[in-house]
Amino acid sequence: MNQSETENETTAVGENVAPASPPRRFEGPSTEGPRGAGPGRGPSDEERPRRRMGRRRRVCIMCADKIKVVDYKNVNFLRRFISDRGRIETRRRTSACAKHQRALASAIKRARHLALLPYTAEHLRGAGMGHR
Hints:
Layout: H1 3-13, H2 61-64, H3 75-79, H4 91-94, H5 98-113, H6 122-127
């Protein structure tokens, strides 16, 4: 048996033998980007103007107008937060904060119970569409 065959047998038995690699040196922060900066890659980080990431944060309508209580009798205001199918819109679409979205949902449900707002859309009621 020569040396290469004995190495194969020792690794097959279960010993993990890693090849020796030279120690890595820390050379300071890299000047390259994640994909590497080469010719034709554009300006480097120092030359590029800074841009803000993402969109500007939307402010809650009710916080901006300093509305303390969402009134269930204010039907025109509540209609803005109901979709064309009669569903309560999500926070993303209404741009309401969590506190006011909860108040909106309870006010819409209360107005529906008192028949101030519809549970479903008008065009879906007469069509007879429902659960199967």
